[in-house]
Design a protein that fits this description.
heterodimer, A: 483 residues, mainly alpha, 3 domains, 22 helices, B: 219 residues, 8 helices, globular
Chain lengths: 483, 219
């Protein structure tokens, strides 16, 4: 048994324990401890690696570590969230909540580490079920509605992805024959040239629309803003972004199979146009949906759609540099967005409560009057999300834009317009947040959790502008291999 | 070999017919009966494929399908219909005739898409796949044209039958039994979820056109 199985199994074991015992407070602390162990294990995986069904590549390890880190910080902020909100749910539901927290983390680790298209699918399916339960946890009518949407859209997506998975297996038959090898990403990538191109194209469409549902690409995004706005915030906002990463990486890997087949003279179509279309559509839908959003969680949900679209766009442009930009963007965004949501949770707590319904922008106005640190931190996160320097996202977006101009100049027009509209819409939220007149409120302490947000922000800055050479090498090799 | 072909095709055809007939039914009870016959034929098809391919996993899939989807899920659905008095006709978003024409078009699309792109594969696999894709698309269509939550679920279940049909037709595919179990977990959550929602009386009816609170309240 390889080490990767231990890393994957740990969150599920923790879920079992957290689901059966402990009150809200003990559960939250146990959850944080389990997440800390997960983070350590995901780091140790760099040394030990995996094999067989979970033969993790360097890219999977990197995103696994990011998942572990996000899980850890989210679980730390979760402690104070649970303390403030413990009375809203019975003890058993809090146990379920913490178990779901671990299951979502475990499912995203499994999805990342799996070198088997069937196992990847199973991970996405488990993640979908866990997230549905998480979204409906408060049992409010709007929460149930959001969960229903999530389940129907997610379920259909899961179904389409399974069909696509089976088609990929069938397309691999001429090259690899029946058996497990025809489901391994590594083996498929090696034999992509000999796969059945037409069938692979059909399979990719199903995969794109199946996992595209989980990645919230337009027109399959409908569930995301609602799901983000309901349920306990640490789970449904900060942690759920991890599943988007898994879906995007899956799309990238299947895209590679198709591209390699087309490049080697197979009959597969080029995957670029499909991805570009969905990417631009997501960008514009987000740009025009930002206006008149009153709920901050829903607003930043649309921003996640935008970022997913941008990454899909980068994957559609193709070429090692654009893929590098797309992967870097995914990495930075999956650090920034949870940081932003953690800041938002803290901000809502400072204003009273962090349950759903307390995240209206009107509720957050003039936040620095309550606490300067928390207010400015949230504003900085929002500023960084807009992608202006010195935010790390600037670096990755710059790479994507410059590659677009080089490879596919006409596409840079909708890309630039969409990004600009999104940035303006996001920046507009900062003014009222910082400078609106203060409602009569006393100054309150920011709490140690705010430092975690600072850590997220610093990491986003450092990884983009002081990038460690090892990271550049890792991302560069991954982008080269998957181009 | 020829018996393998004709029986597999016959069963695939019956499943497709059941999927198509669901579009034409107004009453939930009839839809559930059609779903049940679809699942029973599917389990027979899985057992037959297991016999033809000498694959233990396919026998297992057939038995699981028979016990859970052929018997347990229809029973649960009927229980929901009985307990909540949903005997009356179901609201449809489209006229029956229009949705059936759409259904026919989808079957045509499935055949036109699958057959040319699978020329290298065994003809059994190809035709099975075309039927399976038709069933999947018909299930999706059913989810679109019905407003009732339970009818949408039946559409989902029917779509999932199509997926299992595709899986059992794949030559030597690993994890078939695991896939069908994983899908069943999803389905079970769906059915139990509706049951619980209904008991908690958050939805007065299972008519989903009435629950869009988020839309109404303004986001």
């Amino acid at each position: 048994m390889s080490f990767a199985w231990i890393v994957i199994a740990w969150p599920f074991l923790a879920a079992l324990v957290l689901g059966l015992a402990g009150g809200p407070r003990a559960g939250a602390i146990g959850n944080a401890v389990a997440c800390a162990v997960s983070f350590a294990l995901s780091l140790a995986l760099f040394a030990y690696g995996g094999d067989g069904l979970v033969a993790t590549d360097a890219l999977a390890r990197l995103f696994g570590t990011v998942s572990g880190f996000v899980g850890l910080t989210a679980s730390l902020v979760n402690i104070s969230y649970v303390m403030g909100d413990a009375a809203r749910m019975p003890v058993r539901r809090w146990r379920l909540y913490h178990a779901l927290f671990q299951i979502v983390l475990g499912a995203s680790l499994l999805g990342l580490y799996a070198d088997n298209i069937g196992l990847l699918w199973a991970a996405m399916e488990g993640g979908t079920i866990a997230m549905t339960l998480g979204v409906s946890l408060y049992r409010s009518p709007t929460g149930l509605e959001a969960a229903w949407k999530y389940f129907i859209l997610g379920g259909v997506g899961i179904g389409l992805a399974l069909f696509g998975t089976m088609l990929v297996y069938l397309a691999a038959q001429p090259a690899l024959g029946p058996g497990l090898r025809a489901m391994s990403f590594a083996a498929l990538a090696g034999q992509a040239a000999h796969m059945d191109g037409a069938l692979l194209t059909l399979a990719f469409l199903f995969i794109l629309f199946g996992y595209g549902t989980k990645a919230a690409l337009v027109p399959l995004h409908g569930w995301l803003p609602d799901a983000y706005a309901e349920g306990p915030a640490p789970l449904t906002t900060a942690l759920s972004g991890l599943l988007i990463n898994v879906a995007l990486l899956a799309i990238l890997r299947f895209r590679h199979l198709m591209q390699a087949n087309a490049a080697a003279g197979g009959s597969a179509m080029h995957p670029g146009p499909f991805l570009l279309t969905l990417g631009v559509a997501s960008l514009f839908l987000a740009a025009f949906s930002f206006s008149r959003r009153r709920d901050a969680r829903r607003f930043f949900g649309f921003s996640s759609i935008e970022q997913s679209g941008l990454v899909a766009f980068a994957f559609g442009i193709g070429g090692p540099v654009a893929l590098f930009g797309g992967l870097l963007h995914m990495l930075l965004h999956s650090l920034l967005k949870p940081g932003l949501f953690l800041a938002l949770i803290r901000a809502a707590q400072l204003r009273g409560a962090a349950a759903p319904g307390f995240y209206a922008f009107s509720h957050l106005r003039g936040l620095p009057h309550v606490n300067k640190y928390a207010g400015w931190l949230l504003a900085l996160c929002i500023f960084a999300l807009a992608g202006l320097p010195p935010s790390g996202l600037f670096a990755s977006e710059f790479i994507i834009v410059s590659q677009t101009i080089q490879i596919n100049p006409w596409m840079s027009l909708p890309l630039g317009l969409g990004m600009l509209l999104c940035a303006v819409a996001i920046l507009r939220q900062i003014g009222p947040l910082l400078f609106a007149p203060a409602p009569r409120e006393t100054y309150r302490k920011a709490g140690w959790e705010a430092h975690l947000v600072t850590l997220h922000l610093l990491l986003v800055f450092a990884l983009a502008f002081l990038t460690p050479p090892a990271l550049v090498r890792l991302l560069g090799q991954a982008a080269g291999a998957l181009q | 070999m020829s018996l393998t072909f004709s029986l597999a095709h016959l069963m695939g055809g019956i499943i497709l017919l059941c999927g198509f007939l669901q579009l034409s039914q107004r009453r939930l009870a009839a839809m559930i009966t059609l779903y049940q016959s679809e699942a029973l034929v599917l389990s027979a098809a899985a057992l037959w494929q297991g016999f033809a391919q000498h694959e233990l996993a396919l026998y297992l899939t057939g038995l699981i399908t028979f016990a859970l989807k052929g018997l347990l899920l229809p029973w649960g659905l009927r229980e929901i219909v009985q307990r909540f008095g949903m005997i009356r006709a179901v609201e449809t978003a489209l006229p029956m005739a229009v949705s059936m024409i759409f259904g026919l078009a989808l079957i045509g699309i499935a055949v036109l898409v699958v057959l040319p792109s699978t020329e290298a594969s065994l003809s059994l696999t190809r035709e099975d796949l075309a039927i399976a894709l038709s069933v999947v698309l018909l299930g999706l269509l059913l989810m679109i044209v019905r407003r009732n939550a339970l009818a949408q679920i039946i559409g989902f279940l029917s779509m999932e039958n199509g997926l299992v049909l595709a899986a059992i037709g794949m030559p030597g595919m690993p994890f078939v039994a695991e896939f069908s179990v994983a899908l069943l977990v999803l389905l079970a959550f769906l059915v139990v979820g509706v049951f619980l929602l209904r008991i908690r009386e958050h939805f007065d009816t299972l008519d989903l056109s009435g629950i869009e609170q988020i839309e109404r309240r303004g986001r």
